[in-house]
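Saturday, quiet lab. Running sequence design on the C-alpha cells for the scaffold JK sent over.
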C-alpha cells in the first residue's frame, strides 16, 4: 500500500515579491504589529516603520537591501 504524499502549502512568488495567501497574511500581520504602515489608509504602498526596522533585524533580515523610495 502506498501513502499519498503530504499536501504542501504554496509560497508563491510574484515577480520579485512574495505573493499569494502567504504574502497577504504576512502583510496583514506586519501591519497589525506596526512593522509596516501606510501614510494614509488609501495609499497603495506600505513603508517599514522604525519598529519594523528593529523587529526585522531581530529576524535576521537585512533591510539595507531595500532601496528607499518616495512613497
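Result came back. Writing it out in full:
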Amino acid at each position: 500500500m502506498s501513502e499519498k504524499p503530504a499536501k504542501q502549502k504554496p509560497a508563491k512568488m510574484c515577480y520579485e515579491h512574495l505573493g499569494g495567501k502567504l504574502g497577504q497574511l504576512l502583510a496583514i500581520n506586519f501591519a497589525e504589529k506596526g512593522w509596516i504602515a501606510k501614510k494614509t489608509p488609501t495609499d497603495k504602498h506600505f513603508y517599514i516603520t522604525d519598529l519594523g526596522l528593529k523587529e526585522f533585524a531581530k529576524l535576521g533580515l537585512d533591510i539595507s537591501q531595500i532601496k528607499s523610495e518616495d512613497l
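Notes for JK: The first helix runs from residue 20 to 33. DSSP finds two helices and four strands in the chain. Ask whether to fix the surface positions before the next round.
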